[in-house]
Fold this sequence. Notes:
There is one protein chain. With 559 residues, the chain is mostly helical. Among the domains are: 5-147; 149-168 and 177-249; 250-334. The protein has 29 helices and 2 strands. The protein has helices at residues 5-22, 28-52, 57-63, 67-75, 78-81, 86-97, 105-123, 131-141, 145-165, 180-189, 200-208, 220-231, 239-248, 250-266, 272-281, 284-287, 291-307, 312-330, 349-356, 367-382, 390-402, 405-416, 421-432, 440-458, 466-474, 485-498, 502-517, 520-537, 542-558; strands at 167-169, 172-174. It has a two-stranded antiparallel ribbon with strand order 1-2. Helix 9 (145-165) packs parallel to helix 11 (200-208). Residues 1-7, 126-131 and 167-175 have low confidence and may be disordered.
Amino acid sequence: MAQDTTVTKLSLEYWLDKAIKWGQATTLESQKDVCLHLPQLQEFLHQIYETLKHMDSIVAIQQFPLIGQLLGRLCWNPFVVGYDESQKTLMWCLCCLYSSEPQNPVELKANSWIRSLLCHLLSSSKWESNEAETSAFVSTLGYTSADYYCHLVKEMVHSLEMELKGYQFNGLNIRGRVSAHRVNAVSRFCLPLITLPDVAPLLETLLLYHGDASEEILSSEFLEAVNEAFLKKKISLSESSIFSLWLRHLPSLEKATLCLLDQLVSAQLSSLEEVASVIKDSLLPQAASHPAIFRIVNEIFKNALLETDGTPQVMTIVQVFTQLFLQARQNENEQHKFPLKAYFSCHHQPLVTALLKHPFELPTALWCQHLNHISDMLRALVEDTNNSSLADLFEIWFLVTCFGEWMDTAAEQLLKAAVDQNALLWLLAFYYCPQNENQQRTQTMVEAQAVYSHLMMLFNCEVLSVKDLEAAVHSVTNIEQCCNPHLITHLLTNFLLFSSGGHTIAQAFIYHITEATGTNKEVSSLLIRTAYRINRNGEENQRTVKLLNELLQKVTLKN
């Protein structure tokens, strides 16, 4: 249906014409005609729902202007509503048309109309058996149906909430026994109503309800639907209820993590602050304070790194996520905190402790000493025969990736301070080439040392050309053919930012690197991370800050 809108519009016109003729099926002739067409109508309603659920409400109404009129008429036809699952399908269709963020009076009025229809469908079901008597009673009281039905939904939600929460009696919580079947039924009842604001309290109560059953008692369709609505920002629920959702339904947590990755990889974000804002808004770093959620999210990140061969963009995402997770954990009440071993149980704890210290927590003069300490511990771990398997090696490398800020600091210190170059170059060689199969890491180290030595000879030159810098690369081989171009690109980018003459050729050389090697996103990630550290530490001169911003603008435009 989504592919053939012409047929859809013709079908809509056909069924709207039928609905108008049927009215509320008060004559014998119209009743017979409704019954004759009910199976085809229900199939058509399912087609409508399958199309609408993939569309924004405004787009749906623009593309199918007759849809509201058709659904409205069908909702008031008792023969249609009473047939099989037609009532539920109508509810789902109406919820698809509901605007979660109405922008004008027309959308507000449409939302009000949809709510009244949903309330009517609810009240004409098992929740309210005699529609005719109810209408007469409401009219006698002087209320409109819309008022009555809105109050009915609120009361129904409140009643179900109280049933699940238990009642307060003289300050004591007296919980009645609610069967697992009943809780499951309530969760299924909520399916078509998930995006209605009045239903949010009931959703939260359900998500936080566990009861005595050892197995999941909420409908999996309900859990998936709530997660979907949350990810699309159609509903607003408490953090605790979202965390509970992810703890009790693994597919929802996996989908939330994959959606975050997809959003960050596809977006053109120009600062680490923007990356952090998107990640924090997902609630995943906060939820990861629970070790079970942390481990699952980490597994997904590991797989993403494996599938992308350690793409710097994904490495940056992992690094920022880890920082935000640690911040969220630090803000937790001490009584509720899990020990660090619950998150990093498989790793060498002294290395974890060293990596956990942020560079800004130490005086600049101690950075090289701390990096040497990390390098020594890491080298001992990697060369330990007990950690010789690929799985062990990958776990160690992933831990280092989570705290990648120290690797960026190592690359900067190589160019800016008197350092033990062997220790820091080995650290970077492992970061970019964890395996030493066929002497890859050893060869990477040799190439990096050669490029580094050439760069240091040029470091204090006031006047440089692109050819001078190209010679640093060609002293090893072409950057496209070297053992690990990522490490070479990292050193070259830092040279342009921090050397005396690098500023004058930075734009031309960055363009040359990205064009020749297709490393635009890689260089962009490097620049974004560097800008973040400089802004936070405030140690660089304005010239470097200005250059960084100019390079970021150009590189971001090319992405």
